[in-house]
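Much of what follows relies on a compact textual record of a protein's fold. Think of the row as the fold of the chain written in a discrete alphabet. An example makes this concrete, so a full record is given next.


***
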Amino acid sequence: MKNLLYRGLAAVLVGVAGVFVLMGSYVFINKPEIPAELRK
């Protein structure tokens, strides 16, 4: 049961990371100059 929980958590993290990567590349393509507060 715990294994399934970890697998679900990993899937959620991968999904969130994928969304952030897509958003980041989209913003980077449209607006190369990223504000300082977003660039960490």
About this structure: The two ends are 37 Å apart (CA to CA). The mean pLDDT is 82.
